Amino acid sequence: MTGRAPAGPLLTADTVVGFLRDRGVLDGSPATAGELAGGVSSVVLRVDTSARSVVVKQALPRLRVRAEWWAKRERTLSEAAALAVYHDLTPGRVPEVVAVDESLMALVLQAAPPDAASWKSVLLTDPHAVTGDVPELLGETLGRWHRGTRGRPELLDRFQDDEAFDQLRLTPFHREVQRHHPAVADALEACLDDLTVRRDCLVHGDFSPKNVLVGGDLCWIVDAEVAKAGAPAFDVAFMTAHLMLKSVLASRPRVFRAAAGRFAAAYQAEAGAEAALPLLGWHVAALLLARVDGRSPVDYLTAARLDQVRRAALRVLRGTDPSTADVWDALEER
Looking at 78, 110, 142, which one is the last position of a domain? Predict the structure, then answer.
């Protein structure tokens, strides 16, 4: 299997400084290194010197989860290419790519300030934070990415490999829930067809609060390891579904629904009238169901809350051409 192919040894806090010095990223000045928490699909190491700080990300062949879950390590190269595109389009919203090592499948990035935090952790601690300007900033940024890469075959040719997206999204999400819920298999199959056939623009593939770093004026989007040419609805649905899950946790549907609306409006204003998002309601419902009954369920909802999400998603997937508003309505029904 491609995901099991060797690509050199995995870096550690003990070896990463030498790796960076050998490649001219760091000089010989003192450096500190440590592994960042939360890396499920990659080794993520931060290195600081008095002159600069970088993050080194190296894709794992097997994800750090209980189930056996493999993915191709070459996704690091696609991530590096995608982040370079995004940095060109929105330099203030993405860290700079410093270096790429193809032999080790390692990516070196500009590091965020040490006090930066994931927007997910902020929302879990303080749900009221969703009323800030982050939703608009994310909508504007995503809209600019989709508009800036739409209709550019010379750019999109670089992102035609679907394997990592299939391994880390379609199979553990959509196909897994098809197995558990055959009654909505047709709706899920329609979503799969849309996501595999369309090649409209460069899709991030993991556009969620955990991959948004915030702090002060900072708002960065990171982790594009499943980026591919695809259907823009996936990114919009991914963020929307995550905001819905946070709303269920916080029991504040109106606040999160308003934030999702601001995100969607900012996206549409930036992406333009050509940004078609067919099946958006189904895509959102499919992703909600995937985070309940897929291979990677969310870990912050109780069994009762998970069942609330499951019932709402199934109700929407049984419908015909639902809107995002229909998904919100279903979630708010008890």
Answer: 110
- Per residue in 114-159, pLDDT (tens digit) is 999 999 999 999 999 999 999 999 999 999 999 999 999 999 999 9
Structure tokens at 10: 């995995």
Give the end of a domain, one of 90, 110, 130: 110
- Give this prediction's pTM: 0.95
Look up the CATH number of the domain holding residue 216. Answer: 3.90.1200.10
Shared domain for 72 and 174, answered yes or no, is no
The rounded distance, in Å, linking the Cα atoms of 228 and 219 is 22
Give the integer Cα–Cα distance in Å for 249 and 231. 29
- CA 207 vs CA 120, 222, 279: distances in Å: 12, 9, 18
Paired tokens of 232: 């823009």
Cβ–Cβ < 8 Å for 187, 216:
no
DSSP H stretches of helix in the chain? 16-22, 75-89, 119-125, 134-149, 153-156, 163-165, 176-180, 185-197, 233-250, 253-271, 280-293, 303-317, 324-332
Q: Distance (Å, rounded) from C-alpha 181 to C-alpha 197?
A: 23
Q: Using CA atoms of 205, 209, 215, 220 in order, give the dihedral in degrees to the nearest 10.
A: 10
What is the tally of structural domains in the chain? 2
Which residue range(s) make up the domain with 87?
Answer: 2-110
